[in-house]
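During the first year of the project, the team set up a workflow for recording each protein of interest as an amino acid sequence followed immediately by a discrete structure-token representation. This format lets reviewers and collaborators read both layers of information side by side without switching files. As required by the reporting guidelines, we include two representative entries from the current panel. The first entry is reproduced here exactly as it appears in our internal archive.
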Amino acid sequence: MPNLTRMQFLAAGTAVAGGGLLALGEREPATAAAGTKGVATAGSAAAPAPFTERMPVPRVLEPERDGGLDRYRIPIRPGTAQILPGLQTPVYTYGPDFLAPVIRARTGRPVTVTFANLLDEVTNVHLHGGHVPAGMDGHPLDVIQPGAKRDYTYPNGQRASTLWFHSHAHMMEGEHTYKGLHGFYIIEDPVERGMGLPTGDYDVPILLRDAQFDAAGNLVFGNPALRTTVLANGKVQPYFPVEARKYRIRLLNAAVEGVFQLTLDGAPMVQIASDGGLLPAPVPRTDLTMCSGERVELVVDFGRCEPGSQVLLSDPTRGPVLRFDVGPRTGDDSRVPDRFRPLPVLPRATNTRDVVLSFDLSGPQPVGLVNGRPYDPNRVDFVIRRGTTEIWNVTNGDGAMGFLHDFHMHLTMFRVLDRTGAPMTPNDAGLKDTVLIPPGTTVRVQATFDGFLGRYAYHCHFMEHADVGMMAQMEIVP
């Protein structure tokens, strides 16, 4: 459980909320000068000079082919990583490296991943955004004991999308993910592959997160407001060489608790997908907002830049995050179609539910609540018949305190309908599983529960909020 005093918690919530509230609408592009803004906390180890380290790209795991099934084996282990100059930071890893490998799956072809827990504590794995049976979802109490292995089988029955996997162990989700248990899981399908979008080396996953370090380079899991060092694929303000051509950029906000406001200075960016895959059509963007757990896919045409120029991905409050160094012009047969494919038709909703996320701050430690109750893994909060389409009114009940929350639903994607009666923002477009909810506001979402039977979680995806109780569960019944 997060070890925050009540005052630390209040300060953290207000600071994080303030950053998120700036970002709900489109803004003019901001130009951020290269520098060290936001990359070190007072009293911490020094960050590297900006843009001196190359951003790594996560390696793609090769599966073992077993008939119609792909098998992977991933150890969950303690390790070290060089994140800051001359220091080794203790971390948790999927595999040997802090930057977890990518699993690239195919629609309709199941995947089994054997995770071996080499930690000295329990953990588990949740495929965030995955439509999976309840026993494969990483229920908070369904854990892998130290020294044990667990097979997770994912059917991959959904359309192409960028998902991710992370720890979901009860009251340990935040700390485990913060220490490094986060990685990409990408589903591809033939329809998307035939569209001509950039592929191969020109399809680049970028995991964004924040961190705080002490003077020895250790990760500090404390006050979220002090996590001022931003990492892109595990590096602080790295550079990444690109050819002067189109790239597909898959962005993931893997921060345990935080919001990124992103601008790209020097090249146009076009959003092509959100959490659940492609939008109906590409959308030019001047800026993006990503809360914890969200994914956004872009196509950036560096062919419109002069070779030798530099393009900055920045957060106006956190500073430059990543610099793209544009190289020579090369052949480019990729394209961005004017239209992709329509989203699934919204069925008529037959039920409406209210969900309120809030805190109880009356005691010595904060307690997270959903509809006034803290999480109880033995309690079912909503019983839903399979095949039902519902509208959920999800409210941030902490308007007076100014806390920011976001909302994540397991099992299925949803569509954002509106925000407190106003139209949804560009950040809400497409199929979603995670959505930002500013203090005192309500987001109306619609979902169809046509997948599997069993118990699934829904919760605030600021993991420290969920760890102290801001989580509930639904049961899908025949």
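The second entry, processed by the same pipeline in the following quarter, appears below.
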Amino acid sequence: MDNDKQIKTQAPKKDYLMPDDRGKLEPTPKVDDPDYKAAGKMKGFNTIVTGADSGIGRAVAIAYAKEGANVALVDLEDKEDAQTIKQEIEKLGVNALLYIGDVGDESFVKDTVKEIAKKWGQINVLVNNASEQHPQKSIMDITAAQLDRTFRTNIFGMFYWAREVFPHMTENGSIINSSSVTAYKGSPGLMDYAATKGAIISFTRSFSQNTEVLNKKVRVNAVAPGPIWTPLIPATIGSEYDEHGSVPMGRPGEPSELAPAYVYLATKDSSYATGQTIHINGGTIVNG
């Protein structure tokens, strides 16, 4: 598999804890469903997944690889998780690339997409999944630095990736953006995060209707997860698995339970869906 040098940028200075700094979760999140029946729906696809080292991104990358897709993995830091997911993808018999850097850094995005396009040519699927959140009980505690950091990762980065990848996308390609149930029901302790997730829905709907996008037959959709058992959990409503009884199903979702939706949106199965959002949230009704 491809072992060429990685494009790296310096990770942004952390003035507060990132979710991955909060320790390992117990039980371990399920990112690979052993019962998943792949059908080769993405054989030969070239895909990009941001925020790919853990949680939803890792589950999506594994599902794509099982379906036969090559996966370019993008993550903030070159930790063990980033290296192991690359190895897992390669063991599935497809090509894996790993790029380390800040998705909110425009130059990193430009350089990375240019390098991926040079290696693979056209790109079939982009998954904008990288995200961060920093709980604050009061708006008075949300500093300019935090606000900029949250929007830079969650929204600016999404724009950068979509803009740079689009010219390299195949006809009938797919862009999938990870939003959140907080975009619809709000979150008083995550005001800046929820605002970005709402912006993602508006961006998804708007970009999907762009004439240039429609002419190229590229579909743009979103997935809006509820509480999913990932490293973001300790930063939100609690670090204990059994604390998540607020949703109708009475438990958090597993990353592997979201992956099939990302496969659906990446393939011809969703050929008549664009500008839409799939809600995978344990039964919370949002009517959005």
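For the second entry, the following points were noted during internal review. The helical segments are 55-66, 80-91, 106-120, 144-165, 182-185, 191-208, 211-215, 259-266. Residues 37 and 95 are 20 Å apart (CA to CA). Both points are flagged for discussion at the upcoming steering committee meeting.
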